[in-house]
Amino acid sequence: MVENIFSLGNAVNKQNLSPSSEDIRRKMNSLYGSIQLNWDGWMYLDVTGRNDWSSTMQKANRSYFYPSVSLSGVLSDLINKTSKDGMPEWFTFAKVRVSYAQVGNDLDPYKLMNTYTVNTDPLGNPIAEMKKVLYDTTVRSELIKSWEVGLELKFFDNRLGIDASWYKTNATRQLLEIPTDAFTGYASKQINAGNIQNTGVELMVYASPIVNPRGFNWETTLNVSTNKNKIIELTDGVNEYGLQTFAELNFVARTGGNYGDIYGVTYMRVKEGEHAGKIVVDTNGLPIIEEEKSFLGNQQAKWLVGWTNSFSYKNISLSFLIDARIGGKIYPATTASLYKFGNAAGTVIDGKRESFVVENSVVETDNGYVTNTKEVTPHEYWKKVAGYGNTGTTEAFIKDATNVRLRNITLGYDLDKKWLTHTPFERVRLSMVVNNVWMIKYNLEGIDPESVSATNTNAIGFENLAAPTTRSYVFNVAVSF
Hints:
Blueprint: E1 28-39, E2 43-54, E3 63-74, H1 75-82, E4 91-105, E5 116-120, E6 126-130, E7 133-134, E8 142-155, E9 160-179, E10 188-210, E11 216-233, E12 240-246, E13 249-254, E14 261-264, E15 279-281, E16 294-298, E17 303-313, E18 316-326, E19 329-332, H2 333-340, E20 356-357, E21 361-365, E22 368-371, E23 375-376, H3 378-385, H4 394-397, E24 399-400, E25 403-414, E26 427-442, E27 462-463, E28 472-480
Parallel strand pairs: 7-10, 15-21, 19-27
Antiparallel strand pairs: 1-2, 2-3, 3-4, 4-8, 5-6, 8-9, 9-10, 10-11, 11-17, 12-13, 13-14, 14-16, 17-18, 18-25, 19-24, 20-23, 21-22, 25-26, 26-28
């Protein structure tokens, strides 16, 4: 026991206890202000400013300010005010908008000063250990800067609408923990670094093709978005930040690349000449695997699409959502394991496991590369390819994560109000919801592309023995008084 250190970790006879205690204190003071201006009922200006004082930051950097400004104009109101004929009857509404905003983020508590953890050695003697992260008292708050330009149009008395926007976001001065030399005694150090830029487009088209207050109605909404992520800068002397590493597979943020780029091991191939691009095999006819990792894609989807349809007839309603993730890569380590042990259907061809020659392969001889004719068994092949290292040959199993699914269906019924006349209820609605209804299209072998190795991970393009996604059925009763 060390005198005057009041912690369960410094208790007498600690070896007989399993102590755990934590006392977290944090204080945030904020000052917020806003100004709203209206010009002639069609142009609007909104300006806000916020200043935070955080107890988790060093005194010199404790205060940080972040403003926002937005300007919008309702062009349909302007035209109606200034034009003799006004807007065409079929053109209901038109609005443009532009905005700029900054957002600041502070540290989590107790990540500013370097402290020690009190523990005991195997003999029960008190020891003080450094923590694994080297903190820096000079770090500043994170700063995220964003621009957005948008357009909103409505037609035919709001029965058809379009809402489109372009945005650019730069996350700067990010609070990162990057690996450091083990000889320092720390596993990583905390720094302010980075300029990660996201640019994208979001489009929503909505319509009411059929409107009948006493009969059948149909409403439909289509959402489409795309986002491009680029690493503009990390920090001096650091061009790569590891998001997650799985033996032969790395997910990284690299300067000049995109967040979530995937690097993994590949087949050795002929670099040039008449056999350029062909797989090089050894004298046993098995592929040779390159030890140096190569770029194999990015985990982020190129497009996200969602299509919602809602139908109603009197008291009955039905709605469903179809969504799609287009593009992006995923590495299903479960598939590699199944191939390694011969449990995957792909290890069998026409019900047999006959020997074969590796397709499009060559073998190196003293006279150069020649076409490979050496047969191998499926067992030999998959043991080499799927059994390489800990996670297998990345190139052989990385897949396109594109998938289209019927996400949910909702069927509802509102009880007729005359049935509720002598009850305290104003409305009673019964509904049945089915989630994860049907996987319409996907490219993996029996694995949902939304399965990942763990929750709260940056490596959304890695799956390993994840539990299958489930279909759920929910029955709801909603009552209002």
